[in-house]
Amino acid sequence: MVIAGLWVARRITGRALARRVEEPRSLFLWQRMATYLAVLAGLVFLARVWFRSFSGLATFLGLASAGIAIALREIIANIAGWFYIILRRPFVLGDRIELAGVRGDVVDIRVLGFSLMEVGKWVAADQSTGRIVHVPNGKVFSEHIANYTSGTNHIWEEVPVLITFESDWRKAKGLMEGIMAEIVEDASELTSVRSDEAGRYLIYQGVSTPIVYTSVQSSGVLLTARFPVQPRQRRGSVQNVWETILDAFSEHDDIDFAYPTTRFYDNAGEGKPGANPSAGGN
Asked: Structure pTM?
């Protein structure tokens, strides 16, 4: 009778909430809270019935504690993990996280586990695979948690561009710096600490503007564009950068992309005079 009464009360409450709450996220949270309250009330009422069959509460706890500790250790760990998630809030609904080798957006948090809309795997650039992955809450104690959307509104992305040694690398770098400044219009606002978490993390702000680094590879000069992007716009941002770079480099004959090739080098004819052994260089 207790279970049937609580089930009916939960259904009536759910319909009342559906009529009064229009925002989907709020409705989801309210309905979940109603379910938790119904379960808690049911445990309280049923416990009063069960305890009447025992000589006392101490006897009941003594008989049950050993079995619970061994048989339900995973469930207890998951419940403890749920309290950790609710109180410490390493992530909330809607956050993009990575845990136990799984990346995705948090779409549900329950007492025993949470669910992710998976991204990555065989799909490039952190886009959705369409799968829902269920993770036990106890994993938060044994695995590290990477949150893409906590603290700030951005992650850093890099686009490596390899050009030949004969190219005008300074001009190419200048073009890429101009492209970065044009595409990432307000990097300081994007990389700033979120106002709702300003007092939660001690985050030191480093270089917040896009930058192009120069290095040398075996096949040419490597220009690496580093810039901030929103976590869910990673693939589109990289595509925009590459298309703009391709259009810009196509207009300059003294800039060419490099790739692994086999080349015969004549030091006497192509090398610098001071580096030519036949000319007396070292």
From this structure: 0.64
**What value does the mean pLDDT take over residues 213-223?**
92
Are the beta carbons of 213 and 223 closer than 8 angstroms? yes
Residues 204-229 as b or e (16 or more Cβ within 10 Å = b): eeeebebebeeeeeebbbbbebbbbb
Beta-strand ranges (E) seen in the chain are: 96-99, 102-109, 113-119, 128-136, 145-147, 155-163, 211-217, 220-229
8 A C-beta contact, residue 238 and residue 157? yes
Residue-range domains of the chain with CATH: 2-71 (no CATH), 96-147 (2.30.30), 155-249 (3.30.70.100)
pLDDT tens string 100-116:
889 999 999 999 999 99
Q: How far, in Å, CA of 51 to CA of 54, rounded? A: 5
**Residue 240 contacts residue 229 (beta carbons within 8 Å):** no
174 has pLDDT over 70: yes
* Signed CA dihedral, 267, 271, 277, 278: sign only: positive
CB 101 within 8 Å of CB 116: no
Per-residue pLDDT band at 60 (split at 50, 70, 90): low
